[in-house]
């Protein structure tokens, strides 16, 4: 209860991976009153501008309220019958790998679980991937290579206890604002130093002690230099290194790299290394500037190498912390929502893991190889290998690299289903079947945030029109495809219990993920579930990984990975002399389907723009507020010029939020090349090449 005496409902903010708790109460006029949850361990009552405007974004303007087939209003029975029959028919004629699901880190864990079970267990293909591929797949790959599993070792409490926080490729102040407030609180309480490593001088630099504006994509060389300096300075933890493999080769690779490729003065690199070396409690927070790179996995391992070599991991105030963009990117990783993973951090290539999951699900088949990752999936749609596609709560016609080609591929796909809360997206307009889904304030389930905390999302508003929860839509299609027993769910609580029971396989196979203590959770306990960090087993609840120096490779040791700097995939050249960096704004989220509904959020930076260095602008005859044309090998955008020295000469920054619906000339991912990291498959969204001219 708050002062009004009306009950409030505990839920979770549906935007970024900080996973802030919120208290919600319907205002009686279709909207919501809300405040931060003072008891949630992620935010203790704090909210950022996006979170605090959530109540303004739940109106029914632009909502999709009934199923639509070929642009005409339909009903659930007809629409779901068509989806099930077209998928079944396509599989019968062309095999299970001729269909695909492209899902989203916006899905709740229960939705994700059902989608993954349907595709991997019953359709028999691993062609399910998620927009989290664009977000943190490189962190997953880096964790697995270093630790043996996709384990996030750090927690938010480590930030509170750190004496040095290093932000790498992360504008935390805008993209994870409540975590940034936590960093600033640590600074106030204990004098925590802050270093920002980013080619651009972002808002996060305003409170930093040091900003290293390195050349785009050169992070590996910087962290290799750090490893060398740690070695030369006698700062390695030999006791900890006894619990690792690969140090000698890793150090050799580090010595072989040339730190001058960072473009940073040697004295500044040394100053950073000395600060790191003399500070015992170091947390390295990294995000899309690390992950969205053709060498993203190597960047992650270069960071992990330094933490492992100095034992700055598995103890309070220390560790690497990957912060995810989306509210449930972590839940998606846990249920196996990526094309190269099985549920509960089990491996799709491992025959024992596959057999155990198949037996648990009583499934006819589990594919024995990874499916198509996002970029390859849309290529397969484009060349006709994928003939039926179901896109759920994401807008790939805008957000995928080479977005124009992706849009054209979806348009040409023989059968496309889109589940969403609105039909006014570039992707929804291409659908043969549109399915109205419930939105965040109307649905029940769980999400996992960036530090492994599972929180409940709870419905506080009734589903509008004919909208239904995603798990229910997916389960109904599964039943109509002939898998009645496997998809006979009646509630998200039932799905969560099944998922928790399955997770006991995690411990059985020596994996990290296990929430089996929830397998017998009552509906009542699910309804009142408080935020909890996994694992949750009979003998363990939450806590810290690696304090015991035991890792998940078969010998129990961690691996240091020898990595070497590689330049971004696209090379600047006379036709395309600028590097294009893309990213988020403080007050917008993804393609603005929700945040675009709030006038006060839209007022922050109301139109699409390109940040250009004043020296470059002068040379090109571009004045402040001119319109400029950005051209890459894959697309064009017209944007307002903002002249600023926050970008270095030769670089351009542009936000990625505008769409064909909101600003047709500003679809920035149309310019981004679909170059990917060879290990993670994550696209390089921050180092494309473009030409800039006055429009
Ligand atoms: Fe929501 Fe992220 Fe802001 Fe927290 S920091 S209120 S989770 S957008």
Keywords for this entry:
six-stranded mixed beta barrel; 17% strand; 26 strands; Rossmann fold; N-terminal domain of TfIIb; seven-stranded mixed sheet; alpha/beta; single chain; 4 domains; globular; binds iron/sulfur cluster; 695 residues; Dimethylsulfoxide Reductase, domain 2
Describe the structure.
This protein has about 700 residues and is α/β, with parallel strands linked by helices. The protein folds into four domains: about 10-55, N-terminal domain of TfIIb, CATH 2.20.25.90; about 70-135 and about 330-485, Rossmann fold; about 135-325, Dimethylsulfoxide Reductase, domain 2, CATH 3.40.228.10; about 580-695, Barwin-like endoglucanases (Beta Barrel). Helices cover about 30% and strands about 15% of the residues. The chain has 24 helices and 26 strands. Strands 5-4-16-15-14-6-7 form a seven-stranded mixed beta sheet, with helices on both faces. It has a six-stranded mixed barrel with strand order 21-25-22-24-23-26. A five-stranded parallel beta sheet has the order 10-9-8-12-13. Helix 8 runs parallel beside helix 13. The longest helix is centred in the first third of the chain and has 19 residues, at about 75-95. The radius of gyration is 24 Å and the shape is globular. The termini are far apart. The relative contact order is 0.16. The mean pLDDT is about 95. The chain binds iron/sulfur cluster. Iron/sulfur cluster binds near residues 13, 15, 47, 176 and 178. Iron/sulfur cluster binds next to helix 1 and helix 7.
């Amino acid at each position: 209860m708050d002062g009004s005496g009306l009950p409030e409902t505990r839920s979770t903010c549906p935007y970024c991976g900080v996973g802030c708790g919120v208290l919600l109460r319907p205002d009686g006029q279709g909207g919501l009153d809300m405040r931060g949850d003072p008891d949630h361990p992620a935010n203790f009552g704090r909210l950022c501008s996006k979170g605090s405007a959530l109540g303004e974004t739940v109106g029914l303007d632009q909502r999709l309220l009934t199923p639509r087939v070929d642009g005409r209003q339909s009903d659930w029975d007809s629409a779901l019958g068509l989806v099930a029959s077209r998928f079944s028919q396509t599989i019968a004629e062309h095999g299970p790998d001729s269909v695909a699901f492209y899902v989203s880190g916006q899905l709740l864990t229960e939705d994700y679980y059902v989608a993954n079970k349907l595709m991997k267990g019953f359709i028999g293909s691993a062609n399910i991937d998620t927009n989290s591929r664009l977000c943190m797949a490189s962190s997953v790959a880096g964790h697995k290579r270093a630790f043996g599993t996709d384990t996030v070792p750090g927690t938010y409490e480590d930030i509170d206890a750190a004496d040095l926080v290093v932000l790498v490729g992360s504008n935390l102040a805008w993209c994870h604002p409540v975590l940034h407030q936590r960093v600033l609180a640590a600074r106030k309480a204990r004098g925590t130093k802050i270093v920002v490593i980013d080619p651009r001088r972002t808002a996060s630099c305003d409170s930093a002690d040091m900003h290293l504006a390195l050349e785009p994509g050169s992070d590996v060389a910087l962290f290799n230099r750090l490893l060398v300096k740690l070695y030369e300075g006698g700062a390695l933890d030999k006791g900890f290194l006894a619990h690792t493999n690969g140090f000698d080769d890793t150090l050799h690779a580090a010595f072989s790299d040339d730190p001058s490729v960072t473009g940073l003065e040697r004295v500044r690199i040394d100053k950073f290394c000395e600060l790191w070396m003399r500070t015992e409690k170091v947390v390295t927070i990294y995000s899309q500037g690390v992950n969205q790179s053709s060498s993203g996995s190597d960047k992650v391992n270069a960071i992990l190498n330094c933490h492992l070599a100095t034992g700055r991991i598995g103890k309070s105030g220390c560790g690497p912390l990957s912060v995810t963009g989306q509210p449930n990117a972590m839940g998606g990783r846990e249920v196996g929502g990526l094309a190269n993973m099985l549920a509960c951090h089990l491996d799709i290539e491992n025959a024992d893991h596959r057999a155990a999951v198949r037996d648990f699900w009583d499934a006819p088949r589990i594919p024995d190889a990874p499916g198509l990752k996002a970029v390859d999936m849309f290529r397969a749609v484009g060349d006709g290998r994928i003939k039926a596609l179901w896109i759920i709560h994401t807008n790939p016609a805008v957000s995928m690299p080479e977005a124009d080609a992706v849009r054209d591929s979806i348009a040409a796909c023989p059968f496309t289903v889109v589940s969403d809360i609105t039909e006014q997206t570039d992707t929804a307009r291409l659908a043969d079947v549109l399915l109205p889904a419930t939105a965040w304030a109307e649905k029940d389930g769980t999400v996992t945030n960036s530090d492994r905390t599972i929180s409940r999302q709870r419905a506080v508003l009734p589903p509008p029109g004919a909208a239904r929860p995603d798990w229910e839509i997916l389960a109904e299609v599964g039943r109509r495809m002939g898998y009645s027993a496997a998809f006979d769910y009646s509630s998200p609580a039932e799905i969560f219990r099944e998922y928790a029971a399955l997770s006991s396989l995690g411990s059985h196979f020596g994996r990290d993920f296990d929430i089996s203590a929830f397998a017998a959770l009552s509906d009542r306990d699910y309804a009142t579930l408080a935020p909890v960090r996994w694992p949750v087993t009979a003998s363990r609840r939450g806590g810290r990984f690696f304090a015991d120096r035991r890792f998940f490779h078969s010998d129990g040791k961690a691996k240091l990975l020898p990595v070497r700097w590689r330049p971004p995939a696209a090379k600047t050249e006379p036709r395309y002399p600028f590097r294009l960096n893309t990213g988020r704004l403080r007050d917008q989220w993804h393609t603005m389907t929700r945040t675009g509904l709030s006038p006060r959020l839209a007022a922050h930076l109301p139109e699409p723009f390109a940040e250009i260095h004043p020296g470059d602008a002068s040379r090109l005859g571009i004045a402040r507020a001119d319109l400029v044309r950005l051209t890459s090998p894959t697309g064009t955008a017209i944007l307002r010029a903002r002249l600023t020295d926050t970008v270095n000469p030769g670089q351009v920054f542009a936000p990625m939020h505008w769409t064909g619906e909101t600003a047709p000339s500003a679809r920035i991912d149309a310019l981004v090349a679909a170059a990917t990291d060879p290990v993670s498959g994550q696209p390089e969204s921050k180092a494309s090449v473009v030409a800039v001219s006055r429009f």
